[in-house]
Design brief:
about 425 residues; Methylamine Dehydrogenase, Chain H; Immunoglobulin-like; 2 domains; 4-stranded antiparallel β-sheet; 35 strands
Length: about 425
């Protein structure tokens, strides 16, 4: 009996040790911070401004180590595209000099989240004319740091409030997400696109029964798409040109990596640790990367450093995006019926097997920017495309009837 008990105890101990083992480290992970971070955003220089306990710190984008701390309590909302200014909350909404951390302007007491326009000197934010406890009428307002001038929408969106706002990279659009009440006091979630120059509403992109808070809004690098993260875990992506719903999927957080590649994370069940991170090319409907050991409450992509950042359980993780892409090189080569060689300012397509005599294609850089649209004639043994490119990583996207292929190539000067 005693021997049986000892065997049982040993089996339980062995089981617990096995269950407690950490999963193998992700080879694409560069660094991870200690715990304590509740928010973060990316500075144009590639460093990270992160909320830690009661203050903000700046992290080195290469290592995740703390470079400096703010000498006072502050919540950061945005950084100007040139990196010189920070939009934040101290005793009221203000502008902070990035180098000196000095508060150089205070401009509103509104409960709002001011974002910078591409001109680096104009902030735009939502203002709500209160109607009772929950209702309100929504407008946009801008403030110029240099002229101290305010501009407010002439039109309001009635019975609508907001809790999230974002400005498109090209400065054409503002997007907001919040609550709407109809005449019968039914609550809805409302997603709105605005003209960033006139501050007037353009279109209600989405309106869903029952109110769910909008936790994030992000534009694609070319501003043609805008995504809304809506609680509890749904993402809606719209086309800003024709206002159509481009894609919707379940996710707790998301970000654009290129114009057609998105990253997202979801928590299916915290108790069973059933969650995941994914990177997906939604144009090709192809999963590029998946991690079943992590999820994310927030995520960003640092274009300059090709880093994918996530915040999960009060820690910030940085992944090397180029290593992730390199890791799928073989799978790309296996599914593409051609090979690529770039030399002497010419891209050569060799050893191809296509169904059509004439094809269309695109050359894109690593950020998804279209470099050239091309028409291809496959009647020859080799296709040569004269094009001068700077050093970097590029993709060739080819459509062959109903099939689509993507292959990567490098340019080294």
């Amino acid at each position: 009996m005693k021997r049986a008990f000892l065997f049982f105890a040993f089996a339980i101990l062995l089981c617990n040790i096995t269950l407690a083992q950490e999963p193998d480290p992700d080879p694409n992970l560069l660094w991870v911070t200690e715990q304590g971070y509740i928010r973060f955003l990316v500075h144009p220089n590639g460093n990270i401004l992160a909320g830690k306990h009661s203050t903000e710190v700046e992290l080195d984008g290469n290592t995740g180590e703390i470079i400096r701390e703010f000498p006072y309590q502050v919540i950061i909302y945005d950084v100007s595209p040139d990196g010189k200014y920070i939009s934040a909350l101290t005793d009221q909404r203000c502008v902070i000099d990035y180098e000196t951390l000095e508060v150089i302007d205070r401009f509103t007491n509104e409960n709002t989240f001011p974002k910078f326009m591409p001109d680096n000197k104009t902030l735009v934010y939502f203002v709500i004319e209160k109607i009772g406890e929950l209702k309100g009428n929504l407008k946009l307002r801008s403030y110029n740091i240099e002229t101290k001038r305010y501009l407010t929408s002439s039109q309001q969106v009635s019975n609508t409030t907001s809790g999230a706002i974002s400005v498109s990279p090209d400065g054409r659009f503002v997007a907001t997400g919040g609550r709407y009440f109809d005449a019968s006091d039914n609550e809805y979630t409302r997603l709105i696109l605005w003209d960033a120059q006139t501050l007037e509403p353009i279109k209600v992109l989405g309106e869903f029964e029952y109110f769910n808070s909008v936790n994030s809004i992000k534009f694609s690098p070319d501003s043609r798409l805008v995504g809304f993260g809506v609680d509890p875990k749904r993402v809606y992506i719209y086309n800003t040109m024709d206002f159509s719903l481009r894609k919707k999927f379940d996710a707790y957080s998301f970000c654009f990596i290129t114009n057609s590649i998105i990253a997202y994370g979801d928590v299916i069940d915290f108790w069973t640790q059933n969650y995941f991170l994914k990177i997906e090319d939604f144009e090709l409907n192809k999963i590029i990367y998946r991690n079943d050991n992590l999820s994310a409450e927030a995520m960003e992509f640092i274009i300059q450093k090709q880093l994918w950042l996530i915040k999960f359980r009060a820690q910030i993780y940085a992944f090397d995006y180029m290593k992730i892409i390199s890791g799928i090189e073989d799978s790309f080569e296996n599914i593409t019926p051609y090979s690529l060689v770039y030399e002497s300012n010419t891209l050569s397509i060799r050893n191809f097997i296509f169904n059509s005599l004439r094809l269309t294609g695109q050359i894109l850089d690593i950020n998804g920017k279209l470099i050239r649209h091309i028409e291809l004639n496959t009647s020859t043994g080799e296709i040569r495309i004269p094009i001068k490119l700077i050093s970097g990583t590029y993709f060739l996207h080819i459509k062959d009837g109903g099939m689509e292929y993507v292959a990567k190539f490098w340019v080294v000067e």
